[in-house]
Design goal:
The chain is 69% helix and 0% strand. The protein is an all-alpha fold and 281 residues long. Helix 3 (63-89) runs parallel beside helix 7 (146-177). The longest helix has 32 residues, at 2-33.
Length: 281
Amino acid sequence: MTDTVTIHGTALAATLALTLVVFSLLWLIHGRLKDASIVDYWWGAGFAAMAWLELALAGRAGPVQILVTVSVTLWATRLTLHMVQRHIEKGAVEDVRYARMREAGGPDWPRRNLVTIFWLQAVLQWIIAAPVHVALLVAPGDLPTGPGGAVFALGIALFAAGFAIEWAADAQLTAFRRLPGTRGRLCTTGLWAWSRHPNYFGETLVWWGLGLAAAAAAGGLWWVLAAPALLTLLLLKVSGIPPLEAELQKRPGWAAYRASTSAFVPLPPARRLAVPREGAE
C-alpha cells in the first residue's frame, strides 16, 4: 500500500512539474515573439504527455490504461496540429484575446502573464486531467464488467462522439476560412448552423466521456467528474464563449445568427428568422 501511494504521489508530482516547466519555456519563447497564442500549442499535447509519463511511472499497462492513453493521444495530436495550423494560417499573429490582454496589461504584462496565463493554464490542465490520473494510476488494468462496464462503454462512446464533433467542426470552419471573401464573416453552415460553438461542445463531450470511463474503471470514483464540470464551466462562462462572442458580435449578421442558433448544444436552427446561411468564428 505504501509503495502504491508513493508511486501515485511521484507520478502526480512529476506530471505537475512537467506542465509547469513546459509552460514556463513557452513563456520564455513568447517573450521574444510577443505572441501568447503559442500557449495553446501545449493544451492538447500536455494531456498526452502526462498520460504517457504516468503510464511509464505506474509500471503497469492493462487494457484500461492503454485505451485511455491511446485515446487521449489521438485527441491531443489532432487538436495540436489544428492549433498550430490555424496559427500559421493567421500569419502567426497573436490571438485577438491575448492581444487585448496585452494592451490592457501595460508594461508589466510580460512578467505578470507568466502567472495569469501560462502557469494558470498549467495548473488547470493538470486538474482537468483528473480522469487521466485516475485511469492511469488508480483503476485496475482489466476492463470493468457489469454495470460498471456499461458506464465505461458509455464514457468511451461519448469520447468518440465528442472527438468526431470537434474534428468535424474545426474542419468545417477551416474550410470556410479558406474560401475567398470570407474574412470577417460568420461561418453558419454545417455544424455551425446547429451550434455557435460546436467545437467547444465536442471538447466537453470528450472530457465527460473520459471522466465517466475513468470513474467506472476505478470502481465508482465519481468525484473525478468535477474535472469535466470545471472545463464546461470555463468554456461556458469564463475563457471560452464569453470573450470569443465579444469579438464575434462585431461581425455582420451576428444578431440574427445569435437569435436563431443554439449557443452550445447542437440543435436544429430556428426557422423564425431568415438568417443568411452564407457560411462562426
